Every structure is written in structure tokens, then in C-alpha cells.
Amino acid sequence: QVQLVESGGGLVQAGGSLRLSCAASGSIVSVGAMGWYRQAPGKQREWIATHNVGGNINYADSVRGRFTISRDNAKATVYLQMNSLKPEDTAVYYCNAYVDPLGAPLSRYWGQGTQVTVSS
Description:
By secondary structure, the chain is mostly beta strands. It has strands at 3-7, 10-13, 18-25, 28-39, 46-51, 57-59, 67-72, 77-82, 91-101, 107-110, 114-119.
């Protein structure tokens, strides 16, 4: 069974930084695109960034220039470095990944979510 486990959320003042991590574990043949979403209270889940296997990276306009996504393929881990945080970045952050598990079809998996709170 594949799991995505996130870590690194917390409370930070505006202008501060946080780094989120998300590690895929289980019987994995390969990991494809990995990325991050977030969901603020009362709002729909919002795409933040994607890092494809080939190195192609894309960001939402709302975070471009402040957030950096990276991945360590050997560890099946994706990171989100968040700088210059704003109160409007407050949300639950979710990682996702396309994973090819052993003996099962390629599927999209989600982490459990980690809370990021930015105080003004």
C-alpha cells in the first residue's frame, strides 16, 4: 500500500519561511509527477506547484517567486520551500503524486495534509 506522509507545517509570522516535505512509501515501482495543493477554510482546493519527473516545474501565479518545489527521486520525496509567507497563504497543504505501485495500476495519491498558519 502506498502512502504519502507530509511534514513541516506550523505557525509562522508574515515574511517568514517554512519547508514542507512529503515522502512516498510502500511497494513502489516508480513515481511520476509530484506536486502541492492547498485549501483555505471555506475555499476550494487550489493547485500550487508541480514537479514532473523530467524536471519540468510549474507554479501558480499566487506563489511564483516565493515558493520553490523540488524533489529527491532517490527518496521519493517532494519539498516545498515557502518564503515571504503572507497571511493569505494560511491553509492546509496537501501533496500529491502519481505512483506506479507494485502489482497495481498507476494511481494518484494524496497526503494527509499539513496546516500552515501565517500570522500578520
